[in-house]
């Protein structure tokens, strides 16, 4: 079995110590928070324990007239690992389960400027920033792995143990124990627990 062997230089250890000291002050129950990190609405976020982040992550929990009485609108489970340049933004609810691994440059949002389906829709002649915010919860269940450059959009649930391939756009629910790829993301494999293998899914 292949595993990554981490070899650190003296400078690497110095930087890790600096991050660890910052972590103890910023979020004591986290494992390691790398700076810079940008957090808005920290009081609306439950970080869980054992969190690891990469550099330049941005986590926005926006206070709105709809969530004034909410306890937490972003909930991050235990032992979650978030890599560099991840942006998570919530006005309603984003739940990330235990042991989720998120690669670099991932965007996860539960909201959108304007509405573009149904009977009443926003006009392209209006200013995007003047349009009402529409939101619906994002749920990422435990043991999910999200690949590089993935975009997870509002109202989506990613089922337990699933894998989202790099550069995918997730705009619909992904069932548990699936591998999904593409834009929009489609399930290409499902795990067969009886035979302990991933089985390809046909889209004919």
Which features characterize this protein?
1 helix; mainly beta; 204 residues; 8-stranded mixed sheet; 6-stranded parallel sheet; UDP N-Acetylglucosamine Acyltransferase, domain 1
Give a written overview of the molecule.
The protein is built from one helix and 21 strands. The two termini are 36 Å apart. The chain has one domain: UDP N-Acetylglucosamine Acyltransferase, domain 1 (3 Solenoid). The strands form four sheets. Strands 3-6-9-14-17-19-20-21 form an eight-stranded mixed sheet, with no helix packed on it. It has a six-stranded parallel sheet with strand order 1-4-7-10-15-18, with no helix packed on it. Strands 2-5-8-13-16 form a five-stranded parallel sheet, with no helix packed on it. It is mainly beta and 204 residues long. It has one helix spanning 10-26, and strands at 37-40, 45-46, 52-53, 57-61, 74-76, 81-82, 87-90, 94-96, 101-102, 107-109, 111-113, 133-135, 138-140, 145-146, 151-152, 157-158, 163-164, 169-170, 178-181, 186-192, 197-200. Helices cover 8% and strands 31% of the residues.
What would you report as the Rg, rounded to the nearest angstrom? 19 Å
Number of strands: 21
Strand order in the sheet with the most strands: 3-6-9-14-17-19-20-21
Q: Low-confidence runs (pLDDT<50, min 5 residues)? A: none
Distance from N terminus to C terminus (CA atoms, Å) equals: 36 Å
Shape: globular
Protein name: DapH/DapD/GlmU-related protein
InterPro entries: Hexapep, Hexapep_transf_CS, Hexapeptide_acetyltransf, Trimer_LpxA-like_sf
Keywords: Acyltransferase, Repeat, Transferase
């Amino acid at each position: 079995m292949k595993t990554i062997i981490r070899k650190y230089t003296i400078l690497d250890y110095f930087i890790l110590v600096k991050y660890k000291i910052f972590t103890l002050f910023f979020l004591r129950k986290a494992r390691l928070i790398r700076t810079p990190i940008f957090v808005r609405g920290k009081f609306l976020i439950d970080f869980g324990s054992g969190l690891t982040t990469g550099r330049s992550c941005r986590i926005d929990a926006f206070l709105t007239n709809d969530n004034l009485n909410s306890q937490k609108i972003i909930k991050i489970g235990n032992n979650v690992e978030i890599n560099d340049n991840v942006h998570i933004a919530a006005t309603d609810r984003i739940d990330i389960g235990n042991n989720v691994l998120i690669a670099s440059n991932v965007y996860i949002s539960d909201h959108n400027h304007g509405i573009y389906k149904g009977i009443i829709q926003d006009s392209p002649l209006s200013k995007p920033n003047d349009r009402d915010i529409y939101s619906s919860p994002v749920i990422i269940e435990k043991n999910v792995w999200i690949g590089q450059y993935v975009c997870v959009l509002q109202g989506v649930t990613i089922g337990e143990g699933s894998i989202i391939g790099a550069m995918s756009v997730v705009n619909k629910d992904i069932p548990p124990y699936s591998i999904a790829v593409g834009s929009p993301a489609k399930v290409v494999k499902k795990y067969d627990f009886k035979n302990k293998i991933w089985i390809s899914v046909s889209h004919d």
